[in-house]
Amino acid sequence: MDRNELKQRAFAYIDSIRDTVIRHGEVIRGTPELGYREEKTSAYVRQQMQLLGLADVRTVACTGVASALRPGGEPGENVCLIGELDAVLTPDCPYADPATGAAHTCGHNIQVAQLLGCAQTLAQSGIARELAGNVTFLAVPAEEFVDLDYRRGLVERGLVRRLSGKQELIESGFFRGMSCAMMVHSQPNCPQAACFMDCRSLGFVAKKIRFIGKAAHAGGAPYEGVNALNAAMAALMCIHAMRETFRDEDKIRVHPIITHGGDLVNIVPADVSMETYVRGATPRAVADACAKVDRAICGAAYAVGAQVEITDVGGYAPLHQDPGLSGLFERNAAEFLPQDRILHGMDMVGSTDMGDLSLVLPAIQPTFGGYSGGAHSADFRSVDDEVTHILPTKILTATVIDLLADQAREARRIRESFAAPETNP
Questions:
Q1: What are 113-155's pLDDT values in tens digits?
Q2: Cα–Cα distance, 276 to 261 (Å, whole number)
Q3: Is residue 105 located within the same domain as residue 208?
Q4: Residues 48-92: pLDDT tens digits?
Q5: How far out from the chain centre does Cα 59 lie?
Q6: In terms of domains, do 300 and 344 share one?
Q7: Looking at residue 425, what is its pLDDT?
Q8: Structural domain ending residue among the three candidates 314, 334, 367
Q9: Long-range CB contacts (< 8 A, 24+ apart) of 73-77?
Q10: Average pLDDT, stretch 213-223?
Q11: Beta bridge partners of 84
Q12: Considering the domain boundaries, does residue 425 fall inside one?
């Protein structure tokens, strides 16, 4: 059976399980959990993979779940399909968990629905018999770089080595021997049907800053203290003063928050904490901006006589989308969307650990419309389930068929042509 016939069989099968795919997204939206805490979501995904009869269903990276189309251990091309498990904190979202404030305001629940839809189609439609190689289905934890104190605790206990799920799996060797990886992300503020290709994300470094002053009675003898909160406020202003030195093409984003501003209102704050990301389009740009931010922080502390501690936490690399894999995906998208709804080069200003994965194997993360509201915002939601759930499932499945049909010739070509992006500053 040729590729086009296989694809038409896949599309018809996906139409027949449409309600199931959408229900997956709704169920997971009802159990939002932060990274490395996705116990309920992980259990649901594991159960669904087992019901589909997938091979090698197992826990990975603490709370992640992986499985395969065929039992592992066989040589050949291996395509990895990915969905992300974790939510973010959006307590004012109508569908947030009232106990934790977590909500799926980035669309990760729909990614996992797409993953399960692809898995069911490939496993139960008879298509797998016509394909060579294997498919790994990966529900990965902890993409959002949040809740870092909890994650550091996991590292100290030896439960993980890295703070994000894909970084953890890269370090463990999970992706070794895989041909390529792909997933689809939401495109916020885009309610119409559209596909965005070749987008790049920003790399970043996370900073934890602690200002150390001297406590004193705020009413009786404030002059005897050293106000660490004043140092933090001055640091915020000094960082603002740096913004005009950031070049447009470097896409620098610095967004600090004060996480602890003092202990009691009548005590001069002596221990104040601040966090920020420094994002940029290239490692060189991030390094330059980090130096400026550090200088602003240290200068502000010096000005009020406080001490300061700055701890850098390595974040994510910029995303480099593989052109060969992107080409296959786009040709399949063109079967469903007019050319003017397939857009190129609209870079994401956020960051993702898919960037780290794109350094070690061919990877893509196109984004799809069908969503209203901003990412990580209370008004974020799917407004067209056909576009958000079903269309990406069809295109991902069709791309797998392209990769693994004809003795997996395309997967082998893409793997062999991969060249790791330049990452030096």
A1: 999 999 999 999 999 999 999 999 999 999 999 898 899 999 9
A2: 15
A3: no
A4: 999 999 999 999 999 999 999 999 766 789 999 999 999 999 999
A5: 19
A6: no
A7: 39
A8: 314
A9: 74/134, 76/132, 76/133, 76/134, 76/408, 77/132, 77/133, 77/134, 77/179, 77/403, 77/404, 77/408, 77/411, 77/412, 77/415
A10: 95
A11: 140
A12: no
Residues 310 and 325 in one domain: no
Whole-number average pLDDT of the chain: 94
Q: Residue 16 belongs to a domain with what CATH number?
A: 3.40.630.10
Both 301 and 396 in one domain: the answer is no
User: Do residue 211 and residue 288 come from a single domain?
Assistant: yes
| DSSP calls for 91-153 | TTSTTS-TTT-EE--S-HHHHHHHHHHHHHHHHHSSGGGG--SEEEEEEE---S---HHHHHH
Structure tokens at 65: 């779940």
Which residue(s) pair with 83 in the sheet?
A: 139
Look up the CATH number of the domain holding residue 236. Answer: 3.30.70.360
Q: Which two tokens stand for residue 303?
A: 């000005």
User: What percent of the chain shows pLDDT beyond 70?
Assistant: 98
> What is residue 314's predicted lDDT score, i.e. its pLDDT?
82
Q: Count CB-CB contacts under 10 A for residue 331.
A: 14
Q: Using the predicted structure, report yes or no on whether residue 423 has a pLDDT greater than 70.
A: no
pLDDT at 279: 92
Domain boundary among 287, 314, 341: 314
Is 423 inside any structural domain? no
E strands within 232-345?
253-254, 257-260, 271-280, 307-314, 342-344
Task: Give SS3 for 275.
Answer: strand
Could you tell me if 118 and 81 are in contact, meaning their C-beta atoms sit under 8 angstroms apart?
yes
**In this structure, what DSSP letter does residue 379 have?**
T
For residue 212, pLDDT beyond 80:
yes
How wide is the angle at C-alpha 324 spanned by C-alphas 322 and 325, nearest 5°? 70
The range of the structural domain enclosing residue 297 comes to 203-314
Do 41 and 145 reside in the same domain of the chain? yes
CA distance 10 to 32: 30
19 and 110 belong to one structural domain: yes
Q: Fill in the amino acid letter for 245.
A: T
The token pair at 139 is: 């529900």
Phi, psi of 276 (to 5 degrees): -155, 160
91 Cβ neighbours under 8 A, 6+ residues apart:
101, 103
- The number of distinct structural domains making up the chain is 2
**How many other CB atoms are there within 10 angstroms of residue 45's CB atom?**
27
Interval 337-360: pLDDT, tens:
999 999 997 776 678 999 999 999
Question: Contact at 8 Å (CB) between 141 and 376?
Answer: no
